[in-house]
Records
---
Amino acid sequence: EPEVTQTPSHQVTQMGQEVILRCVPISNHLYFYWYRQILGQKVEFLVSFYNNEISEKSEIFDDQFSVERPDGSNFTLKIRSTKLEDSAMYFCASREYPTGNQPQHFGDGTRLSIL
Amino acid sequence: GENVEQHPSTLSVQEGDSAVIKCTYSDSASNYFPWYKQELGKGPQLIIDIRSNVGEKKDQRIAVTLNKTAKHFSLHITETQPEDSAVYFCAASVPGGYSTLTFGKGTMLLVSP
């Protein structure tokens, strides 16, 4: 069964450094998402992306965050200057259809640890 | 915006028992309600979903019920097995192109043999 893949599985970064998290969505999917899960808390929406632009973003997704689809397969989340509070699991998800409520499929996440 | 409340936060059952997890949502416009299972070190995996035009959906040992009037939905797992042990999240989304999911806080289900 096709799946969303994320790399790396664990990223350790010094505070203030830039980090890029990578995702390969399911190949025929058109909608892409990033979510964040701080340890022990709920999964929170960050941003959605469709047709090479941001569709929707939450208040968490401030100017330090950016997303990009640099080629036909990868979808990346960049944090420009990491803060301690950015430590969390970051999940990428994708969905097939551009309209209507269809299932989102999640990757296994990247654990980001800011020192 | 949408708010999803989930309870209980932890649930311990004996193998073979049933487990029920309940969620409420705040936005009456929400019309899609998926349930995800998250095992340790893994991402959320969709196990079942329901849309607002139906009241119940079943898939083998798993069922979900939806009460639109009361704005709550529940996950029912029958004949639980140790491999059902995981964190379960409910979620809701409103109609529209982007279908952002709002998650509950999760329920840690522990099934003892």
---
Amino acid sequence: QKEVEQNSGPLSVPEGAIASLNCTYSDRGSQSFFWYRQYSGKSPELIMFIYSNGDKEDGRFTAQLNKASQYVSLLIRDSQPSDSATYLCAVDRADGLTFGKGTHLIIQP
Amino acid sequence: DAGVIQSPRHEVTEMGQEVTLRCKPISGHDYLFWYRQTMMRGLELLIYFNNNVPIDDSGMPEDRFSAKMPNASFSTLKIQPSEPRDSAVYFCASSFRSGLFNEQFFGPGTRLTVL
């Protein structure tokens, strides 16, 4: 059974700090991993993807993958109020994406 | 490109009525996905198509739900008869798979309320 687990939050982080979002998955056959951001009332949009162990950086965002621990994380540096949203972790096993329920992130000005 | 287009954006109907949701994927994409999102269950995959062929409908909750993709530019999700527990936001997404990379682009969603 494919499962993706995230802490629902809310996670409250002061502006300018680092926000750390975590995700675990149960299917060891999973090959690629995605982070989507969803603003309230809007549709999810892709912000990062990763498929190799280690870190991948894109601007203020860093995705981290540890396949041995079945763990994916997203770091947001210099957090801005505009980063306040729900962040969905998604796992791809070549037959579609399985999404976690998301972590609600609040950046406090 | 206009992105994934869904209609209607909002639908309010009464229990027992038929509901049809529509989706136009991004041109050139070969995968189309239907999702349902609720607070309790999060974002759930209902069904997906590859080159207009349904591949996996194991997420379809019951026989009241059906989906079709008659051509590469159009898909429908039908609920008949509708029930209050079907109230949710329904998203359509499309993608073009390239190796391990499979970015799905989501439409704006249809907010369905069944009274």
---
Amino acid sequence: EIVLTQSSDFQSVPPKGTVTITCRASQSVTYNLHWFQQKPGQSPKLLVKYASQPTPGVPSRFRGSGSGTLFTLIINGLEPEDVATYYCHQTGTFPYSFGQGTTLDIK
Amino acid sequence: QEQLVESGGGVVHPGMSLRLSCEASGFSFRNYAVQWVRQAPGKGLAWVALISYDGNDKYYADSVKGRFTISRDNSNNGLYLQMNSLRPEDTSVYYCTNVPRLRNSVQVWGQGTTVTVSS
């Protein structure tokens, strides 16, 4: 089973700040890694698919990169509505898995 | 409007069964692999099971293997999860969602249905 480990469980960031969330896979998932945002009481929402492909309608401040075992989600210019929990999800090898989640807060 | 709508959740005793349903609309359901993902109260997302676009391949998390069965009916855009021998640790919100494709893809989540297993 592939374990996904996100760089932190919680981050507090100033408004308009830059956020970097890293997701490390215990084995290569090539580019089969997606990023989701989940706000309290809501279903998850896709931000980036296949490591770096943006999702239509998602603000351009969300960017993904990486391959193999190391992936990064960067949020440039944090907005108040970005307060949420962010998850990485691998679909490279069964059983699929999620990272533990990183909750963002604005300072 | 692409949509997935789950139903079938409820409160059951340990050892009992439930069948979850998920109805798709607004997109080509038959072209996507679809999966169930759950979230225990206050916890993160956990992958449960996946079924291929044609229903021929099925995969399960170790925690549910042998107890849960995923199925689909492309003729009525339906996804199902038969859950047997339920345990308290199965208590979660269950979401259905499709696996995004590399190109020309939508990605949809349902609103979730709550399963509570308690004596």
---
Amino acid sequence: GESVGLHLPTLSVQEGDNSIINCAYSNSASDYFIWYKQESGKGPQFIIDIRSNMDKRQGQRVTVLLNKTVKHLPLQIAATQPGDSAVYFCAENLGIQGAQKLVFGQGTRLTINP
Amino acid sequence: DGGITQSPKYLFRKEGQNVTLSCEQNLNHDAMYWYRQDPGQGLRLIYYSQIVNDFQKGDIAEGYSVSREKKESFPLTVTSAQKNPTAFYLCASRRQGATNEKLFFGSGTQLSVL
């Protein structure tokens, strides 16, 4: 089906370590992917995006990889900080009858331990 | 200061009552969306609108209604037919047209049943 899923609902890492948050998507026709960060009681904030014609995109301390063979979209966060603690969502964009629709995964709660 | 404004931050509904959640954006975006978020789950699409005076049902539209009389505004009404309305509601908008257009989110409204 058109679902985006995450392998792990929770992830804990030590401050300063690197973290990888996994995401699996199911629709091979998805053409655009986004990672969002959501802090408690707030709306999701954009982190990074990637188009289907790319296999890697880097931002500040974040990197997203796109493996279309296995339909994985891992998010790497380097040198984690306490402010990185949040829930992270991946989303895939589906074009349906001219409308662009984002389908979100369940989310992974990342906790940065001091 | 451009953005999406949702109000109120917290809302309480009595049994049998309809309540309306406000969403206003000054980003000049054509497309607007309403998502519902339950604890431990991802975002589920309720309704979306690509243009003024037009909107489409999302995945969980039953018990909800919307209107899009102005480009800037996309209010969501939670009707008495929605038997489990307690959730965090998020409004979002994006530019229409290109595939790689990210969603911008409001800060959300927490709806609870009295």
